[in-house]
Design a protein that fits this description.
Number of helices: 14
CATH class of the largest domain: Alpha Beta
Strand content: 25-35%
Radius of gyration: 24 Å
Largest sheet: 8 strands, mixed
Shape: globular
CATH topology of the largest domain: FAD/NAD(P)-binding domain
Strand order of the largest sheet: 6-5-12-13-14-11-15-18
CATH superfamily of the largest domain: FAD/NAD(P)-binding domain
């Protein structure tokens, strides 16, 4: 029998990131996938700023940015011409080190993650399926079907279902997956093309006919087309070819197709599982929640699930925390998933709605409103904060406490940057740590030293005040860089009580 700390089912971005984070933290993982090879086609394209911030902990952010494509602007078309342009080059400037929209297709993304995982000595076990599993007294016993057809019993302490919308893990747990399916059929095509819409920027057609978005890729002249299939064509979606859909919208935007690399159709769902955890089994990514592609949130949300769960599993498995720390995974992630599905559902319904009123909103009002929104810094900033996931927070959750400055327990630590540097350098290590902006007490310094808890004390600067950080208090940061405690005092007993109340015993583990 093979035994691991965590058995991960599914080797998409969510499963691979979970495996990477756990491996970095010294946890033994086994990752299986029923496919024979990594995907060569994908719909997920955007890597959001919050994901890139967290990727610094795995030294992945630079590789994604260098090999991806930074989108300069989004252009909106009506009746054969661009009517509005939304600059994106520095739309989040001052809020994050990654103040832009990054395109990095999922298939390339997966290859990067697989390469990094292999550096830890972990290989994805391909053509290997989970058939069933049961919880035992001290773990999970899983029955696997190997590539040669043989069966194997795998023992693990925990099981992570990262196996997509048709999750075997979710079905085995008998967890409901309420929601629905949109009526529209979508297509995605990877093409080489030319024309005004192939200038390296994002282009979206708002016309009353077919919806179409042209996403730029790093390679010159290459783009990803995502569009709707309407009228009688939708009834034959399983047999559709690219030639069947390449009519009005593509012609309207004057996209000259030179080569189609691949093409597929799909339906969009909006669902959230009733539970993200049952005993020793967890659901992550599309196994837990699926939603429309609006805003490029899906893959990034799954990666967020993986990072949230990874440090908690590592703490429990290393003996640094009691198992009740794992109780925080579901409430923290399910609340965001439900809010995200509701939000993207409203936007998606507006973008794809049919009828005279919907056409009026898209073709007449949107071209007027978009330039006005782009002209105001506050509206641009609101849009970026929302889409980039930097406003995602765990306020009011069990692991979050206090307020200092404008920062609450559960918030992402604000990024503060000026000519003297930024406050994110120490966040590259996925460990508990304390940040102080201004002065702190001798007691705090001595306590952190005694308990091997990293302490970063920054001399007070205007950049910290501008970021909303409080002066002379402290922020206890979780390994995933969210604020656990926001406190105005410099009393280490506040930290001591927090760890005791949450049964966290080991504060610092060198990964």
């Amino acid at each position: 029998m093979n035994r691991s700390d965590v058995l991960i089912v599914g080797a998409g971005p969510t499963g691979l990131v979970l495996a990477l984070w756990l491996s970095k933290l010294g946890i033994r993982v086994r990752i299986i996938d029923k496919t024979s090879a990594p995907g060569t086609t994908s719909r997920a394209l955007a890597v959001q700023a919050r994901t890139l911030e967290l990727y610094r902990q795995l030294d992945l952010a630079d590789a994604v940015v260098q090999n991806g494509h930074r989108v300069a602007a989004a252009n909106f078309w009506v009746k054969g011409g661009p009517v509005a342009r939304l600059p994106l080059t520095a739309v989040g400037e001052g809020l994050t080190p990654y103040s832009f929209l990054e395109i990095y297709p999922q298939d390339q993304h997966e290859r990067l993650l697989i390469t990094r995982l292999e550096a830890f000595g972990i290989k994805v076990e391909r053509s290997t399926e989970l058939e069933s599993f049961e919880e035992t007294g001290d773990g999970v016993s899983a029955q696997l079907r190997l590539p040669d057809g043989q069966q194997e019993i795998c023992q693990a302490c925990y099981l992570a279902g990262c196996d997509g919308a048709r999750s075997i893990v979710r079905k085995a747990l008998d967890t409901d997956f309420p929601g629905g399916t949109y009526q529209q059929i979508f297509y995605v095509a990877d093409v080489h093309a030319s024309g005004e819409a192939l200038n390296g920027e994002l282009h979206v057609d708002l016309d009353e006919a077919d919806f179409l978005a042209v996403f730029p890729m790093a390679e010159q002249g290459r783009a990803r087309l995502i569009g709707t299939v309407r009228d009688e064509r939708a009834e034959q979606s399983e047999n559709l070819r690219f030639e069947d859909v390449s009519n009005h919208a593509i012609q309207s935007m004057n996209v000259q197709i030179e080569r189609v690399n691949w093409f597929s159709t799909y339906r969009v769902h909006h669902r959230v599982a009733d539970h993200f955890r049952t005993g020793r089994a967890f659901l992550l990514g599309d196994a837990a929640h699926v939603h429309s592609p609006v805003g490029g949130q899906g893959m990034n949300t799954g990666i967020g699930d993986a990072i949230n769960l990874a440090w908690k599993l590592a703490a429990v498995l290393s003996g640094g925390a009691e198992t009740r720390l794992l109780d925080s995974y579901e409430p923290e992630r399910i609340a965001f998933a439900r809010k995200l599905v509701a939000t993207t559902d409203r936007v998606f319904s507006l973008v794809t709605a049919q009828g005279p009123m919907a056409d009026l909103l898209r073709t007449r009002l949107a071209p007027l409103l978009i330039p006005k929104m782009a002209a105001f810094e506050t509206s641009r900033e609101f849009l970026f904060r929302t889409v980039s996931q930097i406003t995602l927070n765990y306020r009011t959750m069990a692991l979050s406490a206090g307020v200092a400055g404008h920062v609450h327990g559960g918030d992402r630590l604000p990024w503060a940057h000026d000519g003297e540097g930024d406050n994110y350098e120490s966040l590259k290590q996925p460990v508990w740590q304390v940040h102080v902006y201004g002065d702190t007490s001798d007691e705090m310094i001595a306590w952190c030293l005694e308990h091997h808890l990293p302490l970063q004390v920054f001399a007070w600067r205007p950049a910290f005040e501008a970021a909303g950080l409080g002066r002379n208090g402290f922020y206890l940061l979780r390994p995933d860089t969210y604020v656990a405690i926001a406190e105005n005092s410099s009393d280490p007993k506040v930290i001591e009580r927090y760890f005791r109340d949450h049964a966290i015993r080991t504060f610092f583990t060198n990964p």
